[in-house]
Amino acid sequence: MRRFDLGIGATTSSPAAYLTFPRLELVRLEQTYRRLDETRYAYAAPLFSYDEILGVSPHGFVVDYPGLWTSVTASG
Question: What is the pTM of this model?
Fold first, then answer.
């Protein structure tokens, strides 16, 4: 997402190739990102009816993908 260089409040579309399973069919995945603040982006992928807020680290890595996964940090 860093490559988009979005200012806070800005939105961009970012279509991607998606390989379906088990049919192994390549389809166009429409998706959009809107930067909410320094660590959150609104993300939507209509093909999957997915519309959530992603948490992002200061380095630009997604650390929270609601309903799918959350990053865990090892301590110690």
Answer: 0.86
Q: pLDDT at residue 76 above 70? A: no
Contact 70, 63 (CB under 8 A): yes
CA dist., res. 4 & res. 67, Å (int): 24
DSSP type of residue 10: -
What DSSP string describes 14-60?
A: --EEEE-TTT--EEEE--EEEE-SSSEEEEEEGGGTEEEEEEE-TTS
What are the tens digits of pLDDT across the range 24-46?
999 999 999 999 999 999 999 99
